[in-house]
Structure prediction request, 675 residues.
Amino acid sequence: MELDLVVAWGAAASALGLGLGVEEVLSHGYAALGFSRSSYLVFRDSVLDAVVTGVAAASMAVVVLFVAILVWGRLTAGRDRDGRGLAAWRFAGGVTAGLVVLAILSFVPDALDRRTALAVALATLAVAATLAAPRVHAGSPRLKATLGAVASSALFGLIMILALGLPSRFCFSLGEVVARNTAVGVAVVICFLLTRSAWLRSNDAGSTRLSPALTRTVLGAFIVGLPLGLWVLTPVLARPTLSAANAKNVVLIGIDTLRADRTTLLDPTVEGRSLTPNLRALASRGTVFSSAVSQSSWTLPSFASILTGKYPQQHGAMFLTGTLRESEVTLPEVLREAGYATGAVVSHFYVDERHGFSQGFDRFRTDYDPMVRTLVNSERVTDLGLEFLDRHRDDDFFLFLHYFDPHYEWMNHAGWDFADSYSGWLREDPMDIYNLRAKRHLLETPEVDWLRALYDEEIAYTDAAIGRVLDYLREHRLLDSTAIIVVSDHGEEFLERGWLGHTITLNEEVVSVPLVAVLPGAGGDGTVVESTVETRSLFATVLDYLEIDDAQRPGASLLPLIRGETAPAGSDIAYASVWLPPDRSDVGKNVVMSAVRSGDWKLIVDHLRGRKHLYDLATDPGEAVDLSGERPAKLAELLTLLDDWVATMQEAGVDLPHLEPDDELREKLRSLGYL
Prediction:
C-alpha cells in the first residue's frame, strides 16, 4: 500500500537522524567536554529534522505513486500476472520519493552537501526496493532476491557513510576521499552479493518476512515514538552541566566593516555628523575601549576569534574558503550548556551555518541573499532579533546580532543627507566594488568624500536599527539584567594606501575597531580604557562576568579593566594577522602579514615580501611615517614579540578546514570584493 512508502521513508529518515545526531555530537566533542545538555539537544534536533523531512517528502511522493498505480491498473487490466509491472511502478515511486527529498533539500541553504546527497540516494534505493519486492510473485525468485539485495546493500551503504563520515562540508585530501569512497563501494558490493545469494538459497524468499501489518505498526511506532520521546524527555535529559553564578542576559552586537574613527562614541560628531548617537548613549552607561584591535582585517577570522577567544591560526578559519571547525568551543555553546536560550541573526555568508557559526545556537537565522545587496539591511536583522527577545525575554538568553550595512556596496538612505550634495560623474557609475577598484586612479577628493559620506549614512542607518533593540530592552526593563557588547570585525580603507575595501592590510583603518561593553554591576559608567586590548578577549570577559565555572578561558578577560583595575605591566599587547598564502591562489589574494601593537607602538611585517613597518601611533595615528630605520631598538623589541608569536601559532599545527570552491562560492566572494 502507499502507506508503506510513508512508513518506510519515515523509518529511514529516523535512522538517518539517529546516525547524524551521534556523528554531530562526536564531531563537536561534547562528550569529551562533558556537555551533556548540548549533546542531547543536538541529537534531538537531528532526529526531529530528519523525521519531519522524510515524512513530508514521502507524503508528497505518495500522490505521484498513487496516480501511477491507478494508471498502471487501467493499462494492464489484469495482465500483470507475475507482479513485475506493479513492482516496477512501486520502485519508480520509491525513486520519486528520493527525488522529492533532494528537491526539498535543494531549497534549504547549505543542506545538500555530497554526503547528504549520497545518503538520500542510498536510502531511496533501499525504500524503492523494499516497496517493490513484496509485489513480485513467487514465480520470479531471482527478481525478488535482487530487489531484496538492493535494499539490504543500500541500507548497509548508508550505515557505512555514517560510520566513515564521507566528505561533506569539509575538503579531505584526495587520498582520504578515494579511500573512504572505495571502502563504501566495496562494502556495498559484498553485501549485495551475499544477500542475493542467501535469498536464492531460500526455498521461499518471502517465508521469513514479517506480516505487513506488524511491520507497519512497529515502524510507525518507531517514527512517532522516537521524536516524541526525545521531546518529552528534554526537561530531564537536557539539564545544564554548567551554571552562571551571576546569571545575566547577553546581547552581542557585531557590526561589519565599522572603523573606530567613524563612530561618535567619544565625541558627539565626526566632521559635523552625528553617526552613532544610540551607541554613544549606550557607551555612557558602560566602558569604551579606545584601542581595541581586531585579530584580522576581514570577517571570517575576526568573528571566529571573537566567538572562540582564539587567534585565527588556532581556530583555523583563515582562508577565503575556510570554515570554523565543529570541534571549536564557541561562546554560545558554553552558554547553552549553562542553560541559556541562544539565538543569532546574521547577514553575511561568512558567519552563516555553512561556515560553522551556527554551533551552539538554538535559533540561527540567516534571512538574507548575499547576491542581492538590497535585501541585506539592518531593519530586518533587528526585526528578527526582536522576535527572539519576545520569545525568550523571561529566560536567560544570549543573542548575537550581526549587522552588515556598512559593508560595500554603499547605499544612500533617506533619513540622512550626508551624501546628497555630490553631483559628479561617479553618481551615474556602477557602484560595485570591482568597478570602483578598477577606476580608483580616477577617484579624486570629491569622489572619495562622497564614498565616505555614503559609508557614514550606512553607519547612521545601522545605529538607528540598533537603537530599536536598545529601546526594546529599556521598555521591557531588561537593561539592568542584560550585558550589551558592541564590536566590529574590521574597518575599511578609502584609498589611504591606494586600496578600497579591506582584507589585504593590517593598518589602523582596518584593525582598529569600536568596542563597547555595558556590564550591569561591573562598573564602567562612561569610562574610557586606553590600554590596547584584543577583541578575542570578549569570550573570556563574558564567562568571567557571568561567573561560569568553565576551565577553558583562551584570551585575557577585560573584566578587571572594566572594574577600573590597573592593567598589569606588559599586558597591553595585541596581535593581528591576515593569512592568505599563495597555495590558495584560485580563491586568494596571496597576502601573509602579521602585526603587533604594544602601547602606542605598532609593527607590521609582510612575510611574503620581507617588509617591516614601524609606527608610533601617539604622534602618527595615520601610520604615514615608517620609523623602522630610525628606531632599530624598538624595531628589534617588537620584532622579537612578533616572531615569538608567529612561531607559537605555527607550532599549533591545527588543521585548516575549508569549503571546496565552486562557481557559486566564487561569485559570492567576487560580489563582496574578496576576489
About this structure: The radius of gyration is 29 Å. The longest helix spans residues 36-76.
